[in-house]
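Appendix B. One record, verbatim.
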Amino acid sequence: MTSATDPAATTAATDSAGTGRRITAGLFMSLDGVVEAPETWHFPYLNEEMGAVVGGLAAAADTLLLGRRTYETFAATWPQQTGDMADALNAIPKLVVSTTLDKAEWNNSSVLSGDLVAELTELKRRPGRDISLSGSIMLTRSLLRAGLIDDLHLLVHPIVLGSGIRLFTEQDRIPLQLAHSATFRTGVVHLHYRQA
């Protein structure tokens, strides 16, 4: 294990070939694989080690990718907030994946509603920093299946929830390669995977 602040714990702005952008996803997960509603179980485990990982992922990105439901939750919350996190989220360009939204009202937001794989593949070819995928369980799952997520960060909490939406389904078979792992003082394990 290496420390949580090891440079391997955060993503680089370019891929191993040195060209293109990376899509990174980070999720809070229970020991039994639940990623739903982390606001109801995650906070007792939040400490500076976890904050360093989450902050590192945010700092490496210049674009935020969101599913519609996560976008609506964020857009209803962050414009009314103040502080560094609120300022960063309100300012960063945001891409919302939706077939039902015509436009996104939150500052610097636009809607992706066409061929998602083609649009994101093209976006990854353009110059820039990481594209950070936040929350958005169904979107994360579909992009993993399409091979479009370059870095998957799972913060596995030492709690069994018994029920709730899990990231992976019984139909999923997605080979991944462990790039980094770290255990926090709270018992949370940070697992950083890349596409195998």
